């Protein structure tokens, strides 16, 4: 009987750590269920951002970064409110709920995209479909970003993928807070001025372009400039020759 109770307890713990888009609490309505000290934009129902050894609260750090983006971003909507820049939300869960046999990366990726999109749609935190939601599933080793259609003029899937790849350096070290901070800061920077604030280690200003492309471009530009200079000199010499005659 004791073994049965233990088995049920362990099973319940595993099931409890699995989430779908409709079981994740709303951090603005129920911050306690999101392991947050106050209402905000970060939901961590499984307490994955709490580091008791370092006495740090990842949820608070992330929320402060999000508020900074909201305060400094330019609202793209026609009826903007004061300090109503783009709302970035974060959801971190142990695992998303899936069928027992749904284990392929393709299926998990598809499920995570739906998970992020459904939560963003349910929470509806944008003024004009201009919000962003970052979803992380630890056990599924997956991060997905869902963003509103109004942000298409400033965001695209290539930028989203690059931002996720930069954060992967921290995610691979299981440093979820730092990885999410880099994503939030990069989204904020892209929204403000179209550039990344944080880049991958070892990358350069021309990332993600290959070095050979940059070199070829530089050579082409130099050739064009040289041709223009030679052309101008030739024109001047031709005019002088005509004047002498």
UniProtKB/TrEMBL annotation:
Stretches that traverse the bilayer: 205-233
Signal sequence residues: 1-16
Swiss-Prot/TrEMBL keywords: Membrane, Signal, Transmembrane, Transmembrane helix
GO cellular component terms listed in the entry, alphabetical order: acetylcholine-gated channel complex
A Pfam family per the record: MOLO1
Record's keyword annotation contains Flavoprotein: no
Protein name: Ground-like domain-containing protein
Organism: Syphacia muris
């Amino acid at each position: 009987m004791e073994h049965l109770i233990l088995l049920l307890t362990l099973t319940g713990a595993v099931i409890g750590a699995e989430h779908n888009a409709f079981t994740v609490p709303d951090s603005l309505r129920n911050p306690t269920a999101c392991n947050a000290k106050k209402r905000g934009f970060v939901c961590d129902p499984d307490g994955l951002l709490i580091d008791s050894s370092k006495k740090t609260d990842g949820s608070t750090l992330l929320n402060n970064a999000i508020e900074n983006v909201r305060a400094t971003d330019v609202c793209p909507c026609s009826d903007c409110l004061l300090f109503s820049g783009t709302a970035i939300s974060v959801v971190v869960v142990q695992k998303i709920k899936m069928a027992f046999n749904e284990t392929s990366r393709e299926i998990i990726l598809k499920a995570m995209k739906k998970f992020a999109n459904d939560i963003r749609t349910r929470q509806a935190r944008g003024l004009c479909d201009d919000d962003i939601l970052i979803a992380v599933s630890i056990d599924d080793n997956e991060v997905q970003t869902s963003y509103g259609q109004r942000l298409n003029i400033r965001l695209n899937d290539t930028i989203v993928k690059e931002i996720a790849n930069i954060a992967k350096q921290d995610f691979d070290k299981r440093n979820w807070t730092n990885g999410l901070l880099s994503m939030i800061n990069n989204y904020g920077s892209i929204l403000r001025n179209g550039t990344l604030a944080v880049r991958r280690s070892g990358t350069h200003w021309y990332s993600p372009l290959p070095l050979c492309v940059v070199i070829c471009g530089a050579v082409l530009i130099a050739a064009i400039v040289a041709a223009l200079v030679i052309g101008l000199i030739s024109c001047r010499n031709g005019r002088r020759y005509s004047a002498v005659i």
